[in-house]
Amino acid sequence: MQQQQQTTQSQNMQMPPTMVSTKDQMYLTDILSWTLIAAKKAHFFAQQCQNQDVKTALEDAGRMHQQHYQKVLQHLNKNPNPTQSS
């Protein structure tokens, strides 16, 4: 088991690839979609909530998801025209 962990650690990328595969692009699309939906749902339920503690927790969760969404977009926009490969 330890040998497997060492092999996995040595295979970690030092720099991200310059191209995005179709599979990677679909995964990134899913990440953005799920994160945006989570932010919207948290906002919606916070507006419906009567308990102030729960409302605050939902608003915090919504902000967190919105920040994650923006961070992923920032990373993707660093190289606006990546080369795609299949």
Describe what you observe in this structure:
A two-stranded parallel ribbon has the order 1-2. The protein is mainly alpha-helical and 86 residues long. The longest helix has 27 residues. The chain is elongated. α2 runs antiparallel to α3. The protein is built from three helices and two strands, in the order αβααβ. Helices cover 72% and strands 7% of the residues.
Give the topology.
Elements: H1 2-10, E1 19-21, H2 22-48, H3 52-77, E2 83-85
Parallel strand pairs: 1-2
What is the gist of this entry?
By secondary structure, this protein is mainly alpha-helical. The chain has helices spanning 2-10, 22-48, 52-77, and strands at 19-21, 83-85. Helix 2 runs antiparallel to helix 3 (52-77).
